Amino acid sequence: MKRKPEEGLLISPIRNGTVIDHIDGGEGLSVLRILGITGRTTEELSVATNVGSRQMGKKDIVKIENRELLKEEVDRISLIAPKASINIIREYQVKEKIGVEIPSEVIGVIKCPNPGCISNANEPIQSSFACQKRGYRCRYCDTLITRDIAAYII
Amino acid sequence: MRHIISINEVSTEEIDDILDRASAIEEGAYDPDLLNGKILANLFFEPSTRTQMSFVSAMFRLGGKVINLGSIEASSIAKGETLADTIRVVSGYADAIVLRHPKEGAARLASEFSDVPVINAGDGAGQHPSQTLLDLFTIRQSFPLNGINVGFLGDLRYGRTAHSLATALSRYGVIIHTITPPGLELPPSLTHDLLDTGTKIVVHEHLEDIIADLDVLYVTRIQRERFPDPGAYASVASGYRVTPEMLADVSDRFILMHPLPRVDEIDPQVDSMPCARYFEQARNGVPIRMAMLQKVLV
Ligand SMILES: Nc1ncnc2c1ncn2[C@@H]1O[C@H](COP(=O)(O)OP(=O)(O)O)[C@@H](O)[C@H]1O
Ligand SMILES: [Mg+2]
Ligand SMILES: [Zn+2]
């Protein structure tokens, strides 16, 4: 290991995997949820919540051992952590840094808040939202989600 | 192949084309054998008299045939079949599907599973493009759509026909006037969308403040369920009931519209006034739906 990662004890070094840094304070668990990592996961992971950050005041950090996030997974994170930076770690070194990008379409990630929407019925479709200026719009019922998007993550 | 799911996806050129076709059809300029050999599947998961009958009439007038869902209780839907499966199967039986369904987005889903064009005939509180087109057609029978003053009276919060019509009219540079009871104003997101298109919206407290300047007054029903008790409903509804006296000062070209069925919103004495257009409006459902069927089936 050439350089000691700055968060030392809070986030212990990993050999291979992904570090998601600069998550808005308190949203770390939502980030896990968006990645499909639930309580029963076999993934080796650690989450640091509300650690001090010079840029952000408080931030969360998520570290996942032996998993490199895919581009589409990274994009999903933009829903709740638009400032996040994703660091791909190989042999203890940051090998790649990816900024999140807001995707034009979010499929299968958010549940439509409209109970009358066909995407909430027992049908073989995934929810689908278009990212628009004022929020996320349901492809099926046109409902617009303007805030608190994390609350609708499936 | 093209579907007609939401008026928002129909370009202004296509809207004008459908209205032009409907005008020609109304004058008798259509081929009564145009859709000879074509079959339309009418899938109405919810009761509807006018929309269903006018689609059947439109198909018959163009020489086509119609098959129906029949009773839902006796069908595979009652056994729990998904809409997606029903559509996959039925699209093998017909050349186009007309769908009315209680869930919002049902027609969009249908278009994803159908091998033939789908026309949305109303999806819950969502879209109902043939209604919007016949509303536009009714206005255009009297004068061009551009720059007119259109009043909307009644429930603009939940009234989907008013929402779709206002959105469609926003492409024609109209000025929108609203007259609603407190709590039943246009939803903020729709107001935003309309303002984004450059549409001017003027909110009025009383119909009498604006009636003389209107070209169109579109009346919508105020539903009893929106009020805590019958008394509250009655006192609000009576204030929004259109009577001959309220129409004393209208302009010569003024027209009064209503998507029907009406309950108490318009005094029956208004029916015989020259401005009353709601029965013509309902009748216009046939030429408009003929034009739509031509568009998707030819
Ligand atoms: N081997 C590692 N194990 C765990 N975390 C690491 C490792 N290497 C770097 N990090 C973490 O990844 C993030 C990005 O690292 P780095 O590029 O060095 O810093 P920064 O992006 O803050 O300039 C930091 O939160 C750092 O603590
Ligand atoms: Mg840092
Ligand atoms: Zn929806």
Radius of gyration of chain B: 20 Å
Q: Rough shape of chain B? A: globular
Integer-rounded radius of gyration of chain A: 17 Å
**Shape field of chain A:** elongated
**How many independent structural domains of chain B?**
2
Task: Give a written overview of the molecule.
The complex is a heterodimer of chains A (154) and B (298). Chain A has 154 residues and is mainly β. Chain A is 9% helix and 34% strand. In chain A, the strands form 2 sheets. Chain A has a 5-stranded antiparallel β-sheet with strand order 2-3-1-4-5, with helices on one face. Chain A has a 4-stranded antiparallel β-sheet with strand order 6-7-8-9, with no helix packed on it. In chain A, a hairpin with a 2-residue loop joins strand 7 and strand 8 (135-138). Chain A is elongated and about 50 Å long. Chain B starts with 11 loop residues before the first helix and ends with a helix. Chain B has 298 residues and is an alpha/beta fold. In chain B, the strands form 2 sheets. In chain B, strands 7-6-5-8-9 form a 5-stranded parallel β-sheet, with helices on one face. A 4-stranded parallel β-sheet of chain B has the order 2-1-3-4, sandwiched between helices. Chain B is built from 10 helices and 9 strands. The interface between A and B is medium-sized, with 19 and 21 residues.
